[in-house]
From TrEMBL, chain A:
Protein name: Ribonuclease P protein subunit p14
Record-level GO BP terms: tRNA 5'-leader removal
Gene: LOC109063374
GO MF annotations, alphabetized: ribonuclease P RNA binding
Record's keyword annotation contains Lyase: no
One Pfam family, short name: RNase_P_Rpp14
GO cellular component: a single term: nucleolus
TrEMBL record, chain B:
GO molecular function term, any single one: ribonuclease MRP activity
Name the record gives this protein: Ribonuclease P/MRP 40 subunit
GO biological process assignments: endonucleolytic cleavage in ITS1 to separate SSU-rRNA from 5.8S rRNA and LSU-rRNA from tricistronic rRNA transcript (SSU-rRNA, 5.8S rRNA, LSU-rRNA); tRNA 5'-leader removal
Domain of life (superkingdom): Eukaryota
Length: 128, 361
């Protein structure tokens, strides 16, 4: 058993290397069968269209993908957040069909994505 | 490529290390000052079944009420102040009001009523306040703080009459509110219900769920190394891993995988089972403290469990984070804290906030 430790306090400012985004894809004609690889490829194409090969050459991770809801969680380096977010905003079509990405939540902490108080809803609540 | 594109909002992470038995330990203050709690999650590695004392702690959480269209002046009514506000342990927060777009009202346990208002509402209401700390170039948001326990706001005084008439006649603000009171006696609940019965209200119990995770990689943590320099993993990586566990994200990806390269931080070990419990609702800090005590008792008993993690998420749209420190929503409104409890009653406390937040205490 270790001895009880003394008090220590550290403050980290902007020390999180990544930002995390919870997004969902909305298709005009309802859900299609999109795999996780196709979902990620769609985002990469959107990035390339907006920023070119060099501008889009930063990695991001698709940490989780729900095929039924077409929602995903992305992880991107801080320097790529603005580019990724803007590419998602301006992405308008998938296989010639109109679509839109909705960004539900963005945070420098992945843990914060698991507790979004804006999702607190009650039985008879209309989704606003 | 323009360097402006590579900027991102600032974030703060405060890491504290101490021992629960240390008399100067501030764990109780940190918990009690974080007024509005939305979700609590507990992760216990090497645990299969929900322990009885922890289950009963969760089920003893106080109910909360959702009141529709409650006029804000009602929170200043004399009987309300006497029977609830002055006694403390009473919390109220306007429901479904986005702090970056609309007005938000909050009542803290200390008796402070905080109104975070947009410019038009502030000017029409005519109460004394100050501009928000997080205004950009023009002041578009103002914060009015009323201390309902202060002598100058005792019912009957001129100032009280002025404030009451502003909220009642000049600009009657009405919002849906979430209310909760830490249970100390059932008769106090009755007076609250009598007040609420004039409006449409529902009582809710915080929603509890739990499940067991099998065969997961788990970071190794040593209480003495909170910064993750030698024996433990880095605090950011640890919190990221906790997020991955809560969100059911796979931690076993190859480094050259197309989809995700996320892996559990080193040093790590494999754990055959872990228990994850969550409870969501409008939860008072006193309930969190009771749960923390039960978790401390659980880990004190001889077990395989090396540490327990307790995560508490605040409300994104709350006008305050800890105490009366102003909180805002820029691209996110996170204000969360996480305890890691160890066997010798050592603990780590991580407090994380986003861009529009003061430094956690």
């Amino acid at each position: 058993m270790e001895e009880p430790s003394k008090f220590e306090r550290y403050v980290y400012k902007n020390a999180s290397v990544y930002h995390y985004m919870k997004i969902s894809l909305v298709l005009e004609n309802g859900n299609q069968n999109i795999t996780d690889a196709q979902f990620k490829q769609l985002i990469i194409c959107g990035l390339r269209d907006l920023y070119g090969e060099v501008g889009a050459s930063f990695p991001f991770d698709l940490l989780k993908f729900d095929q039924n809801e077409l929602t995903g969680i992305l992880r991107v380096y801080n320097s790529g957040l603005v580019k990724l977010w803007s590419a998602l905003t301006l992405l308008g079509s998938y296989q010639n069909e109109a679509c839109a990405f909705r960004v539900t939540q963005v945070s420098p902490f992945l843990l914060a994505l698991s507790g979004n108080s804006r999702e607190l809803r009650f039985g008879d609540q209309l989704i606003s | 490529m323009s360097p402006e594109l590579e900027k991102c909002p600032r974030s703060l992470l405060v890491c504290e290390k101490s021992n629960f038995l240390n008399e100067k330990s501030r764990h109780d203050i940190h918990v009690s000052k974080h007024n509005f709690n939305y979700k609590i999650s507990v992760l216990i590695p090497d645990c299969e079944a929900l322990p009885a004392n922890i289950s009963s702690a969760f089920h003893s959480f106080s109910s909360y009420y959702l009141v529709r269209e409650l006029p804000v002046y009602q929170l200043l009514e004399e009987t309300f102040i006497e029977s609830h506000v002055k006694k403390g342990n009473f919390y109220a927060l306007s429901y479904n009001t986005k702090i970056d777009e609309e007005n938000t009202i909050a009542l803290l346990s200390s008796g402070q009523l905080i109104l975070s208002l947009d410019k038009d509402t502030y000017e029409q209401l005519g109460l004394e306040g100050r501009p928000s700390l997080y205004n950009h170039k023009k002041a578009m948001r103002f914060v009015v703080t009323l201390d309902l326990t202060d002598k100058s706001l005792t019912p009957g005084t001129k100032r009280y009459q002025r404030v009451l008439s502003s909220l009642k006649d000049r600009l009657p603000l009405r919002y849906d509110f979430l209310l909760t009171k830490y249970n100390t006696g059932s008769d106090e609940d009755q007076t609250l219900i009598k007040l609420l019965s004039q409006y449409s209200y529902e009582e809710h119990k915080p929603a509890f769920s739990h499940h067991t995770l099998k065969n997961i990689p788990c970071p190794t943590l040593y209480p003495s190394d909170i910064q993750g320099k030698t024996l433990s993993c880095d605090p950011h990586h640890f919190l990221e891993w906790l997020g991955a566990v809560n969100l059911d994200i796979s931690c076993e990806n190859a480094a050259d995988s197309f989809l995700s390269t996320y892996v559990c931080p080193e040093p790590q070990s494999s754990v055959s089972q872990a228990l994850l419990c969550t409870v969501t609702g409008f939860i008072s800090p006193e309930n969190v403290f009771v749960l923390l005590q039960e978790l401390r008792q659980y880990i004190d008993e001889p077990k395989f469990t090396p540490w327990i993690s307790l995560t508490v998420h605040g409300f994104m749209d709350s006008p305050v984070s800890w105490g009366a420190t102003e909180h805002g929503f820029l691209k996110g409104g996170e204000n969360l804290y996480n305890f890691v409890c160890f066997k010798n009653q050592d603990y780590w406390l991580h407090m994380a906030t986003g861009a529009q937040d003061g430094c956690p205490p």
